[in-house]
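G., before I forget:
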Amino acid sequence: MTRPAFTVWITGLPCSGKTTVGKSLTQVLQQRGLPVQRLDGDEVRRELCSDLGFSRADRHTNNLRVAYVANLLNKWGVVSVVCQVTPYAETRAQLRRKITEFVEVFLDCPLEQLINRDVKGHYKKALAGEIKNFTGINDPYEPPEDPEVACNTDQLTVPQTVTKITDYLESAGLIGPAADHDQEEPYTSEQEAVVKKRLSDLGYL
Amino acid sequence: MGLLKRFFSKTPGRDRIFVLGLDGVSHAMVSGELGRYLVPNLAGLLTQGSLLPMRSVLPTMSSVAWATYFTGVNPAKHGIFGFVDRHPDPFQAVIPTARDLKSLTLWEHLSRYNHEIGVMGVPLTYPPKQVNGFMVGCFFSPDLASATYPVELAPRLMEMDYRLDADTSLARENLDAFLADLDDTVSRRFLACRRLMAEEPWDFFQLNIISTDRINHFLWGGWEDGDEDLARAFTAFYRRLDAHIAELIQDLPDGCHLVVLSDHGFTRSAGVVYLNQWLEANGYLLLGMGKKELRNMHAETRAYSLAPGRIYINLEGREERGRVPSGRPYEDLREELIHRLGGLAHPETNQPLVRAVHKREDIYHGAHLSRAADLIIEPEPGFDFKADLGRADLVGRDSISGTHTLDDAFFFVHDTELVPAEPTTLLDAAPTILDLIKLPAPEAMDGQSLL
């Protein structure tokens, strides 16, 4: 029988880095030989939940549908990495009950920085009143009180965030330690900083 | 000239070869009157064989150039396109290392033929590979302890106070300290090289000097302008280097082949061109209001640049927030950029800044072409393309007064007649070296032997 896998559920405000971290985490886990399926908010809305809007009830239903799929994947040994805003504490509590191995990852970032980042231009539109029910601006986000992993993406880089997540997964026994070849990255982050400084002094970066 | 006499009197033995790599030393600097003035011993030596001007590679950066040299293949085969590269999705800037090389290196090839090798300081040799012999990594090594193969070599080099590179941050703060540091780095490197030549067995030995590139970057302008102090310091550096080279040549064993080459030329910097400033000002690159970083670029971005002069189209399906569809829209955008950038001129002097804008498939070929930038700028000599974000002006100046050139690197083989290619390029060096020591070149190599 296949060993059941787990779900990493990445929650956070729009632009907090859920998709970026989710993609990177997926790559890292795949490099460790694990089958991984990423379920990203935008794609899920298009493919699985195009009938749903952004009301509280619709958001709740959307999250529960994804939880159902994630848990099915887990049953057959596939790790699920879910990237969704998931703003309501009550919904997340229900996800925890529905998904056998649930790892909640909270990406925290000051709203001001998110508005600055605004890669999709949504904050600008929301602030101008062009988008209604936009989480963080005119729709609530209830931050998790006790997530398995909390990362401030304003302070951590993407690789650091991913490492924090894999460290947790290792400590919880959900994944094995990295194989030797994974530890042999050419640079540690301190070493990379040294080399980047050198290149920067030469004006090469 | 006593040393030359001694060198040439040696009798031929088995095929051993010594390669001296001088980073950023142009053909003009070692030939003719300038050569005799700046590096008299070396210039004398270079009259005793074939000295050819050599074309480097685009983009003209040491890591790309030396990788091209020691693999004998173009960047789309060896996979190194600059000092910095990027993973498109999620966007991440990375520094390529020797682990990213996709082609067989000269050192690995020689090791397969059981030739004993020693390699010191060649760019893009960190992390060092396991070879039949030893390697000392380049300035990409974070520290000496992790720079050598085998690891036991590191403590020996530490005892000699071996330096991976001079501290170039000094150049902007304290020029005298920088010059002293450069000299120190050079003399320790020659000392270590001569000791290892004597103590280790080798058939192939390559020593690279990076300090030449460093002094050229920071003192070229002062030297060319005839600034008394800077010109004196520049000349003194090269004279001392020349003396080191002369000593080293004396140490070469009987019948040893000798190759001396550089990876690119140098010229006076005419200005730094901030390409992302142009892309932003012309609506191709959109950055948010927050911290100006490429990883925060707006989804409406159509193109962005990495240094030097590499342009990536924000291609749908490839880039993190790609929006330019492949096929016709991609091609149209490339044509538009080629057209507009080709006419780029200095806003004050009206000098042209761009000699050519190349599509990647026109200058590279190989399995890793898809990882290359979509467009590569060949600058007018003197102009250096950077990728800084948030610059106010298209063209600026900085304290780096010398910059790389494509056309006038050099290649020299002692006591041998070379037939120049049209033009001779870095790709021809490795096949020629292998031919000299009577080994076949790997079929994948792009260049040809000049023998």
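Chain A touches chain B at residues 19-20, 23-24, 113, 115-121, 158-159, 186-188, 190-192, 194-199, 201-205 (CB under 8 Å). The CA atoms of residues 37 and 43 of chain A lie 13 Å apart.

More on Monday.
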